[in-house]
Amino acid sequence: MTEVLDPPAQAAPQPRVNRRLPAHPVVAIVGATGAVGIELIESLTARDFPVAQLKLLASARSAGMRLPFRGREIIVEELTEDSFAGVDVAFFSAGSGISRKFAPIAVQAGAVVVDNSSAFRMAPEVPLVVPEVNATALEAHDGIIANPNCVAAILTVALAPLAAAQRIRRLNVATYQAASGAGAAAMEELRQATGAYLEGRPFEQKVLPHPYAFNFFSHNAEVDPLSGYNGEEEKVVAETRRIMGRPDLPVGITCIRVPVLRAHGMAVTVEFEDALSVDEARRALVAAPGVRLVDDREANHFPMPVEASGQEDVLVGRLREDLGDPSGRSLALFVVGDQLLKGAALNAVQIAEALIGR
Ligand code: A2P
Asked: For strand 112-115 and strand 89-92, is the pairing parallel, antiparallel, or unpaired?
């Protein structure tokens, strides 16, 4: 008699966690006292995010400090391994080391982590999300969602509508990056250095490596001695490719730190597969979410940090044909966005909104 065997057990496909958030989540902010942390608190208020309860976490140095939220004061607590009990969503903005150690602990405790550090941005199982560009990447995650590098977030908001109108073949980007990207202490150093310069006093830089008042310099991230590119440039290239779903997109880049407090600028040239006219590009940008076209040739009025600071929209303008490409397939543009908002806090809150289904 032939023995009938059960068919070999198939390895059951591992369901990925598909965590959404409750309509009124308990929210924690790790790094609440930092430049991005403060903006996270502001963005939750500005966007009327349905916070059931807010927990503010920072280092032991800040424990006991009070920060305002919706007419009340919340006492900052020291971040510990027990901080995440009952938390539904935790925004992390206290650097990669803290994220690496505490994000898995938060997930274990049942929270969804929206991480503003670079710790998990290139991990294949962690979606890297700009909601206007690739919100569908949020459909499956294992509890951690990465918030992109500030330049990559602002740049991709401006590029997505153009890429939808015509496939991009190649990019070249030169950035003009504000102090806020290096944290609250760098912003304060810019203020102090400028005051000292104007009063003719000597000033010793402690946060950034070069004189900052009335000066600019190559981005302070470490430089790879072989390639000559710095860590910021490497992040922008890798993350822009990932967010846009174009892993091989050629991107040339130079990142510069300029003496501006909180809005990053970028001069971008885009080569398309086929020509996209300036008018077509304008129409695509006007219709795009999160973009404001600022492109008045007559008044010589284009995107500026003073007009982008404190604004949710990314400003895009100076649209023109790139004369460096005689084929006529390239456009030049200038983009400015608030580094602390679309470049960090706002994008993180928008991710959480998408997880609620708002
Ligand atoms: P603290 O103010 O207590 O040092 P920024 O990017 O503006 O420099 O802010 C960094 C944020 O990360 C701050 O809120 C800072 O808190 C927080 N942070 C730094 N180190 C730690 C730590 N070891 N544990 C918790 N939070 C930390």
From this structure: parallel
Domain count, the chain: 2
What are the φ/ψ torsions at residue 118 (nearest 5 degrees)? -90, 5
Residue 131 lies in a domain: yes
Residue 350 parent element (H or E): helix 346-356
Residue nearest (by alpha carbon) to ligand 1 atom 16: 58
Is there a catalytic annotation at residue 219?
Answer: no
24 is catalytic: no
**In a shared domain, residues 226 and 323:** yes
Ligand 1 atom nearest to CA at 78: 25
Res 8: pLDDT: 52
Q: Which pLDDT does position 322 carry in this prediction?
A: 98
| Ligand 1 pocket mutation, candidates 29, 36, 42, 59, criterion most atoms within 8 A of CB | 59
Question: What is the predicted pLDDT for the residue at 358?
Answer: 83
Containing structural domain, residue 141: 26-147+344-355
Q: Could you tell me the sign of the dihedral formed by the alpha carbons of 213, 215, 220, 225, in that order?
A: negative
* Same domain as 171, residue 137: no
pLDDT tens-digit readout, 1-58: 444 555 555 555 444 566 899 999 999 999 999 999 999 999 999 999 999 999 999 9
Q: Report residues of the chain scoring pLDDT below 70.
A: 1-18
Tell me, in angstroms, the distance from the centre of ligand 1 to residue 266's CA. Answer: 28
Q: Which residues have C-beta atoms less than 6 Å from ligand 1? A: 31-35, 37, 58-59, 61-62, 79, 94, 98, 183-185
Residue with tokens 């070069």: 210
Distance CA 211, CA 45 (A): 36
* Residue 167 and residue 299 in one domain: yes
